[in-house]
Design a protein that fits this description.
The complex is a heterodimer of chains A (399) and B (459). By secondary structure, chain A is of the alpha/beta class. Helices cover 38% and strands 13% of the residues of chain A. In chain A, a hairpin with a 5-residue loop joins β3 and β4. The longest helix of chain A has 26 residues. In chain B, a hairpin with a 2-residue loop joins β3 and β4. Classes of the chains: A alpha/beta (399), B mainly alpha (459).
C-alpha cells in the first residue's frame, strides 16, 4: 500500500474527517499530503477568441481562401508541425512548447453550439448542455463535492475583484481576491469584526441579508489565512507589466507560498474581434503568451510546475470565413491550450480542425469540453467527475 | 403596513431613497398621494448636458502625434465629465423616478462607445422615453450612432451582413432567448442592412447597401425593413413578458413571481408598451408592499453612492474619484461589462467586493472612520490607534466632505434614535442593530456605524 493510500484509509477509518478542520491541524496536514496539492489554473479568454488565428492551420489552403485579408502569412507563423503553427504574437510560448510543457487540443466544443457570448460562456462555466440552464459552476460543484476535505472558500481563488459563475456552487463558493493585503486590512476594522462575531453562530437566513453576512464571515476568515500564508513569500521572477501578468504573478505567489488552494481562475478579455482583428487579437495574444511563458518559467524555477496544470478556454471560436470588416463573427468549436510539467501527451493532441466539413460555415466539434473537465476532475483533482458533471464523460489522456 | 413605511419603500425603489428632507414633505401623505407626487416630480424631461459638442477624430490630421494625443486627452476628459455629470444629476435632481428608470434602460440597452457625445445622446434617448413609449425608445436606440457602432450595424451591408445587432435586438432588447431561431437572426440582419450614421452623428438609411429582397422572419415572408422587424417583435407578447420580468427584478424582487409578472405584462402589452402605465400598476399593487418584497434587494453600486450623496449632501472636491469608486465597486456608468449589462443582485457581492462596499459609506462621509462604539479588544486598540493616519490617507484620496450639519438639521425634532435607524435601513431592525442604536452616544457616531452594516447595502 502506498503511503498516501494508507493515510487516506486511516483518516476515513478513524472518522476524523467529521471533526472541523481547525480543531485538527494534523489531519489537515494529512489531507495536504493526500492530494499532493496539485493546482489547476483556469484561464478564460473572454469575448470568443479566434482559435484559427491563434493556432493557425497554415497547411490547409482553405484557411487562406476564407481569410483573404486576415490570414496570418506563412513566413510569420511559428510552425509546430506541417499543419499548424503559433500566431507570431505567441512567440514566447515556443520555448514552452519545445520543453514539452504545452498541449493543444483542437476542435473542443459541444452539441448544438450557442453563438451568444453570455449563453455560451454560461455553458462553459456551468458545464451544462446547450439547452440546460444551471445556476452553479463546474468548479463550484467541485467545491461542493469535495467540501469534507477542503471546506474553505480559498480552495478556489479567482484573482479578480469579483467571482465568476464557474466558481459558485450550492454550498460552497470560491473567493475573489485581487489584493490579499488590502482584503485582510479591510476585515480588521473593529466594527466589522464585531459584526462577524455577532453573526458567526447565528442562524443566517436564506435571503440576501443572510447571504451578505455569510459572505462577510467567510471572507474574514479566508482573508486572514491567505494573507498570513502568502505574505512571507517574495517573487523573484520577472513578469510582463500587464494586468494579466500581475494576476499570474499573484497566482504564482500563492502556489509558491504553499497555499492550500486547488483551483485558481484568471480572465483576460478583449477577444470579440468583429473588426480590425489582426491588431486587436494580436495585442491580446501577446499579453497572453508573454504572461503564460513568465508564469510557467517561474513555476519551473520553484519546482512547482509538476504540480500545476493550466487550462485555457474561450466561450467559442469564430467563423471560418472572415467578415467584410477584417474581423470574424461568432463561431463554435475552438482549441483548448494546456500547460504543465507533467503532461501525458505534450504537443498537438489531436487532428487539426477540418475546414472542409463545416456546419453552416462553422467548425464541427470533435471533443466535448466536458471531457476536458472530466479529465481534470478525475485525474488531476481526484474527484469522481460524474458527481460534478452529473453524467460520465469520456476521459482524455493529456494528464 | 403603515403609509409612511409604504412611502419609504416607494422612495427606495422608485428613486434613490427617502432622505430626512423628503420625510418632512411626505410624512402626512397617503400612499396614493405619494405615488402621484413621484410621477409629477418626474414629468418634465431635463436632458443631461455636460458634453457640448462632438469631438471628431477626422479633424485630427493623420500622423500628427501631438494633435492625436490632445484629442485622446479631450475625449478622456469628456468621458469623466459625462460620468460625473450623471451621478451629480441623480444625486440632486428632483426627477428621481426618471433617473432611476434611465439607469434601468442604460442597463437594458447596455452599450459602450468611445465617443462621449454619442453616449450622452443615447443616455438622453433613455431619459426622454424612460416613462414613455417603449417602441419609440427602441427605435431611437436602434438608430443611435452609439448602438449602431457598438453592435456593428455600421458594417451591416447587403453583400456581407453583420448579425450582431439583429441577434442582440432579439436576445436582449425584446423577445428574449428561446423565441427566435438562428435563421430569424440571419434574416432580420438583412432587414437592418444599410442602417448607419454619418459624420455629424445622425442616423442614415444607406439605401445602396440595403438588402431589398424577401426575408422570412418569425414565420412571415415579406420585403421587410428594420422598422418592420421592430414592429413584428413588439407584436409578440413575449416582448412585454421579457421586459416586465426584468422590471420586476429591478423594482420588486430578484425572484420572479409568475402571477405578478403576467399581470404587469398584460398592462404593458394592452397599453401598447406604455412604461408609465406599467410602473403605476406596480406601485399601486398591494404585493409591491409585501414584507417579502421590502428591504431585500441588493443596492447597485450607483444606488449606494447616489443614496449616500442625496442623504448626506456629499461634496466631491475631486469629482473624478467617483469613477474610482464605480470601478472598485464594479459598476462604471457608460461602461457595462458586456452587451447584457450588469447582472445585478447577488452578482454585486463577492468576498472582496463586499468588504469595499461596507467601507465605502465611511470613506465618503467620515474620512474612512467608523466610530466604533463597542468594546475594543487589545488587537482593536492597535487598529484604532492607526485611525488618525488612515483618516488622513482616506480623506486625501477621496476628498469628499459630507454635509453632516445639514443632515442633522433635516431630522425632524423629536425623532428617536430608533426612528432614525428605521429610516436609514430598509430591513427590519434586529437585536444586534438595536444594541448598536441603544449604546450610541451621539447620532453622528451611530449613523457612521449603521451605514457600515450589511443591512445598509439592501433596500
Amino acid at each position: 500500500m502506498k503511503r498516501r493510500d494508507f493515510l487516506r484509509n486511516s483518516t476515513l477509518a478513524s472518522g476524523a474527517f467529521l471533526i472541523p478542520s481547525f480543531l485538527k491541524p494534523l489531519e489537515a496536514l494529512a489531507s495536504g499530503q493526500l492530494t499532493g496539492y496539485k493546482n489547476l489554473v483556469v484561464i478564460q479568454l473572454s469575448g470568443g477568441n479566434d482559435g484559427l488565428n491563434t493556432i493557425v492551420p497554415y497547411g490547409n489552403d482553405i484557411y487562406y481562401q476564407k481569410r483573404n485579408t486576415i490570414a496570418i502569412k506563412q513566413p510569420e507563423i511559428i510552425k509546430l508541425n506541417d499543419m499548424q503553427g503559433l500566431n507570431p504574437n505567441l512567440s514566447a510560448l515556443k520555448e514552452i512548447y519545445d520543453q514539452g510543457w504545452m498541449s493543444i487540443i483542437n476542435s473542443v466544443g459541444y452539441p448544438n453550439p450557442d453563438r451568444s457570448h453570455f449563453r455560451s460562456m454560461d455553458i462553459w462555466q456551468t458545464g451544462s448542455d446547450a439547452n440546460q440552464f444551471l445556476t452553479t459552476g463546474w468548479i463550484g460543484r467541485y467545491l461542493d463535492a469535495n467540501c469534507t476535505v477542503n471546506k474553505d472558500p480559498y480552495t478556489a481563488i479567482e484573482v479578480d475583484d469579483n467571482l465568476s459563475l464557474a466558481m459558485k456552487g450550492i454550498k460552497m463558493k470560491g473567493i475573489a481576491v485581487e489584493s490579499p493585503a488590502k482584503l485582510y486590512q479591510a476585515t480588521r476594522e473593529p466594527f466589522f469584526k464585531e459584526l462577524v462575531n455577532e453573526h458567526s453562530n447565528a442562524n443566517l437566513s436564506e435571503d440576501n441579508l443572510g447571504y451578505l453576512y455569510k459572505t462577510m464571515i467567510e471572507t474574514s476568515s479566508s482573508a486572514s489565512y491567505i494573507q498570513q500564508t502568502s505574505k512571507t513569500y517574495t517573487t523573484t521572477a520577472e513578469y510582463p507589466n500587464t494586468a494579466f501578468g500581475k494576476h499570474l504573478k499573484g497566482v504564482a505567489k500563492f502556489i509558491n507560498s504553499g497555499l492550500k488552494t486547488r483551483v485558481y481562475y484568471v480572465s483576460l478579455s478583449g477577444f470579440d474581434t468583429h473588426a480590425s482583428q489582426l491588431n486587436l487579437q494580436g495585442s491580446q495574444l501577446k499579453v497572453y503568451g508573454d504572461g503564460i511563458a513568465a508564469f510557467v518559467k517561474d513555476l519551473k524555477q520553484t519546482g512547482k510546475l509538476d504540480d500545476t496544470l493550466v487550462m485555457t478556454f474561450s466561450e467559442f471560436g469564430r467563423r471560418v470565413e472572415q467578415n467584410a470588416s477584417n474581423g470574424t463573427d461568432h463561431g463554435t468549436a475552438n482549441n483548448v491550450m494546456l500547460f504543465g510539467g507533467k503532461l501525458n501527451k505534450a504537443g498537438i493532441y489531436n487532428n487539426a480542425p477540418d475546414l472542409s466539413q463545416l456546419d453552416n460555415g462553422d467548425l464541427k466539434y470533435e471533443i466535448d469540453f466536458r471531457s476536458v473537465y472530466a479529465t481534470l476532475l478525475d485525474k488531476w483533482l481526484d474527484v469522481n467527475n460524474s458527481s460534478v458533471l452529473n453524467r460520465n464523460f469520456a476521459k482524455l489522456n493529456f494528464v | 403596513m403603515s403609509d409612511i413605511n409604504k412611502i419609504k419603500h416607494l422612495y427606495a425603489r422608485a428613486g434613490f431613497g427617502l432622505g430626512f428632507a423628503d420625510l418632512k414633505q411626505v410624512q402626512n401623505l397617503t400612499i396614493g398621494q405619494a405615488i402621484d407626487r413621484v410621477f409629477q416630480a418626474s414629468a418634465a424631461v431635463k436632458p443631461l448636458t455636460p458634453i457640448a459638442s462632438y469631438l471628431d477624430s477626422n479633424n485630427v490630421a493623420k500622423g500628427d502625434k501631438m494633435a492625436k494625443q490632445q484629442f485622446l486627452q479631450e475625449e478622456r476628459q469628456q468621458q469623466v465629465q459625462l460620468n460625473v455629470g450623471w451621478i451629480e444629476k441623480m444625486s440632486t435632481d428632483d426627477s428621481q423616478l426618471r433617473e432611476k428608470m434611465t439607469l434601468f434602460w442604460h442597463n437594458h440597452f447596455a452599450c459602450r462607445t468611445r465617443s462621449p457625445w454619442y453616449s450622452q445622446q443615447l443616455n438622453n434617448i433613455h431619459r426622454a422615453n424612460a416613462l414613455g413609449d417603449f417602441k419609440v425608445m427602441l427605435t431611437q436606440v436602434s438608430q443611435s450612432p452609439a448602438m449602431l457602432q457598438f453592435l456593428n450595424n455600421q458594417l451591416n451591408k447587403k453583400d456581407h451582413p453583420n448579425e450582431n445587432f439583429a441577434r442582440e435586438l432579439m436576445e436582449l432588447f425584446t423577445v428574449g432567448r428561446g423565441n427566435y431561431t438562428e435563421q430569424d437572426v440571419k434574416e432580420s440582419a438583412r432587414a437592418f442592412t444599410g442602417w448607419g450614421y454619418n459624420n455629424l452623428g445622425n442616423f442614415v438609411a444607406r439605401d445602396g447597401i440595403h438588402d431589398t429582397g424577401q426575408k422570412t422572419f418569425l414565420g412571415k415572408t415579406g420585403n421587410f425593413t428594420g422598422d418592420d422587424i421592430i414592429t413584428m417583435l413588439l407584436e409578440r407578447k413575449e416582448t412585454a413578458q421579457f421586459i416586465c420580468t426584468k422590471l420586476y427584478k429591478y423594482l420588486v424582487n430578484e425572484k420572479p413571481n409568475a402571477a405578478n409578472i403576467n399581470a404587469m405584462a398584460d398592462v404593458f402589452y394592452t397599453s401598447n408598451y406604455n412604461i408609465q402605465k406599467v410602473l403605476s400598476f406596480v406601485f399601486k399593487s398591494d404585493w409591491f408592499y409585501n414584507d417579502s418584497n421590502t428591504g431585500n434587494l441588493i443596492k447597485a453600486p450607483v444606488d449606494l453612492i447616489v443614496g449616500l450623496n442625496r442623504q448626506f449632501y456629499v461634496k466631491y472636491n475631486n469629482p473624478s474619484v467617483l469613477m474610482q469608486f464605480e470601478r472598485t465597486l464594479g459598476q462604471v456608468l457608460f461602461n457595462p461589462p458586456n452587451v447584457a449589462g450588469w447582472p445585478g443582485g447577488q452578482n454585486w457581492i463577492d468576498s472582496s467586493l463586499l468588504m469595499y462596499r461596507l467601507k465605502t459609506p465611511s470613506i465618503l462621509l467620515n474620512n474612512g472612520i467608523i466610530d466604533f462604539s463597542g468594546k475594543p479588544d487589545p488587537e482593536d486598540e492597535v487598529f484604532l490607534a492607526g485611525n488618525a493616519k488612515r483618516s488622513t490617507t482616506a480623506s486625501a484620496q477621496a476628498q469628499t466632505v459630507a454635509g453632516w450639519d445639514k443632515f442633522l438639521a433635516d431630522i425632524p425634532a423629536g425623532t428617536s434614535k430608533t426612528q432614525i435607524a428605521q429610516t436609514l435601513l430598509s430591513p427590519k431592525l434586529n437585536t444586534y442593530v438595536m444594541a448598536v442604536v441603544n449604546r450610541a452616544n451621539d447620532v453622528k457616531g451611530m449613523v457612521s456605524e449603521l451605514v457600515s452594516t450589511p443591512e445598509y447595502q439592501l433596500y
